[in-house]
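REQUEST FORM: STRUCTURE PREDICTION
Request ID: SP-0412
Submitted by: Lab K.M.
Chain count: 1
Length (residues): 205
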Amino acid sequence: APAQRRRPRRLSQVFSELARDAGERVTMGDIRDALGDRSFAALLVLFGAFNLIPLPPGASAVLGLPLLVVAAQMTWGSRRAWLPRFIADKSLSAEQFRSLIDRVVPHLTRLEQYIRPRYWPFWRRQGDRVIGLISLLLAIIVTLPIPLGNWLPAFAITLLGLALTERDGLLFGIGSIVGVASVAVVTFVIGAAGAATQAVLGWLI
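STATUS: Completed
RESULT:
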């Protein structure tokens, strides 16, 4: 029983409470502050999940920026997430934020049923840096203006963030495989687009 009491709250609970307690506006800085010491993994999950939701064109460039900043700090070995002012001050209305959270939490809750500490291959904070580096590479892809190109890398980042919250080595492996697959898909899409462009230019010229 004592071990159960010490178990940290699931991220689905944390996010639900954030939405419940949201004021008139919710800034990225408010979210970071509310997550406290869990900010790195939680921010990866939250912004990764936001990028899985169908949003207007160009939204991934905005929502991908916090992923880039957070992942870069993890790779560097920072202890707490810092957001530059122009990102920290970006805000959503409470209604918009709750709408996003309402779409994320049910999927997150289902995933959390299968996550638990197991087979964690890293010592101390090594996992933070490795996951930060992988997420940084994937976050760069998320911000690229590739139609539907951000979904798979964003999903991989979400899985990796969840793996870090629970030290789940199995989920880390799955997230890494999805990450490699996303790089392969994006590389293929860019290559195919380049080949098609060259073919059209060759035909015109």
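NOTES: Residues 1-5 have pLDDT under 50 and may be disordered.
Reviewed by: T.R.
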